[in-house]
Amino acid sequence: TEGNLTAFFIERQTLPEPVKKRNSDLPWLKLVDLHPDSRHYQINNLDPIGTYAFRVTAINHRTIGNPSEIKSP
User: Fold this and answer.
1) C-alpha angle with apex 10: 67 to 55, nearest 5 degrees?
2) Where is the Fibronectin type-III domain (predicted)?
């Protein structure tokens, strides 16, 4: 139906040192589009000493959803 999910996408922000917190002025970089059945994805090539924020957004036939809460692993 029209409400079913059709995809997800993951975005990343690279947080500057020494801020270590989310900054709404920083750009979001779209990393990948995922199939709606995806339940995991490994992000590679990150700087091990860098600080990042991630968010996931769902897409359906009618609209793009609101981004998830920002997660910093």
Assistant:
1) 40
2) 1-73
Token pair for 39? 């339940």
Residues recorded for the chain = 73
The whole-angstrom distance between residue 5's C-alpha and the CA centroid of its chain comes to 16
DSSP bridge pairs for 53: 13
pLDDT tens column, 16-69: 876 555 556 788 999 988 887 777 889 999 999 888 888 888 887 776 777 777
Which residue in 1, 53, 61 sits closest to 23, CA to CA?
A: 53
Give the span between the Cα atoms of 71 and 73, in whole angstroms: 6
Q: How many CA atoms lie within 13 A of 64 on its CB side?
A: 8
> In 1-73, where do the E strands start and end?
5-15, 29-34, 51-60
